[in-house]
């Protein structure tokens, strides 16, 4: 940073940001506001940053105190955190009413701050940011992984009953999202541009991840996630890459599994048939 002053004028400051890691263009954001900024050392020596408006309520700032624990839980599940820092900033509500996994500095609308959303965005640093989809149609590799990470966080922090409740929310959301005017159903693995950022991809992708975990067992499933994050660190991927790695790690032929879950249309009837009473407990 460089500060210079001219006679009779306030000083101006030039800031230069140096990003050491490859970054997808949609993961860059600029937030200008009056902010209280704190820096701390996080798990594994990374820098933790909080940039909050001075009037942010205590109940919201307290939620971010769980970020180090989230990093530790996900490091155990996914492998080392992929970046040098992790920040959180909160801005005035936008029309999106959303959070964005901006690489290294997550941005939240005030109305979007919740424990499960924070867990979701932290998990995105591995899946979506470090390992990014090469094609928009493979967005389930981002959002399904991050949404299922909400279940993983609930499991680690609050126990199996909370995890099961989080999973049931995903099944119910998929059922709702599968209801189309034409009745033709939806494809999780190729949702089309109109459904790219809908619960088809988010909830549907999370259900796929849970079913894959059931199919492979915990040992192979988490070994797959760690190998996925390590092998494709700072690079782009497709669903075919994931299927190939899942088969390599598990030693199973999974073509029929992924065709069934990703590329066979989901309708409300099919969801109801597959999940009677939405009762799929987590072991």
Detailed description of the structure:
There is one protein chain. The protein has 283 residues and is α/β, with parallel strands linked by helices. It has helices at residues 58-63, 67-78, 115-124, 140-158, 160-177, 199-216, 218-231, 239-250, 255-262, 268-274, and strands at residues 2-4, 12-14, 36-41, 47-52, 85-91, 99-100, 105-109, 131-133, 235-237. The strands form three sheets. Strands 3-4-5-7-6 form a five-stranded mixed sheet, with helices on one face. A two-stranded antiparallel sheet has the order 1-2. Strands 8-9 form a two-stranded parallel ribbon. Strand 6 and strand 7 (105-109) form a beta hairpin. The longest helix is centred in the middle third of the chain and has 19 residues, at 140-158. The radius of gyration is 20 Å and the shape is globular. 34% of the residues are buried.
Distance between the first and last residues' Cα: 52 Å
Q: In what range is the share of β-strand residues? A: 5-15%
Unreliable stretches: 1-5
Radius of gyration: 20 Å
- Strand ordering within the main sheet: 3-4-5-7-6
Query: What spatial form do the alpha-carbon principal axes imply?
Result: globular
- Describe the largest sheet: 5 strands, mixed
- In total, the number of strands is 9
Percent of residues in helices comes to: 40-55%
Could you give the order of the helices and strands? Answer: EEEEHHEEEHEHHHHEHHH
Structural class: alpha/beta
Report the total helices. 10
Overall average pLDDT: 93
């Amino acid at each position: 940073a460089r500060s210079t002053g001219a006679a009779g004028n306030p000083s101006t400051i030039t800031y230069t940001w140096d990003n050491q890691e490859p970054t997808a263009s949609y993961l860059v954001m600029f937030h200008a506001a009056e902010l209280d900024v704190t820096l701390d050392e996080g798990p594994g020596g990374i820098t933790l940053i909080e940039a909050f408006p001075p009037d942010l309520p205590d109940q919201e700032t307290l939620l971010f105190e769980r970020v180090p624990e989230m990093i530790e839980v996900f490091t155990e599940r996914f492998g080392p955190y992929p970046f040098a820092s992790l920040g959180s900033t909160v801005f005035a509500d936008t029309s999106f009413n959303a959070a964005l996994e901006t690489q290294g500095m997550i941005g939240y609308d005030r109305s979007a701050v919740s424990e499960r959303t924070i867990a979701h965005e932290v998990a995105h640093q591995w899946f979506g940011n470090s390992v990014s989809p090469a094609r928009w149609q493979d967005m389930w590799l981002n959002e399904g992984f991050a949404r299922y990470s909400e279940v993983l966080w609930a499991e680690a922090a609050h126990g199996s009953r909370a995890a099961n409740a989080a999973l049931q929310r995903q099944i119910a959301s998929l059922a709702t999202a599968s209801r189309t005017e034409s009745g033709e159903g939806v494809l999780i693995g190729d949702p089309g541009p109109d459904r790219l950022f809908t619960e088809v991809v988010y909830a549907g992708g999370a259900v796929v991840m849970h079913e894959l975990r059931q199919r492979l067992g915990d040992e192979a499933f988490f070994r797959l996630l760690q190998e996925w994050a390590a092998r494709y660190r700072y690079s782009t991927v497709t669903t075919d890459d994931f299927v190939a790695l899942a088969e390599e790690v598990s030693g199973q032929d999974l073509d029929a599994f992924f065709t069934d879950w990703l590329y066979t249309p989901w309708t409300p009837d099919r969801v109801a048939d597959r999940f009677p009473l939405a009762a799929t407990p987590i072991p």
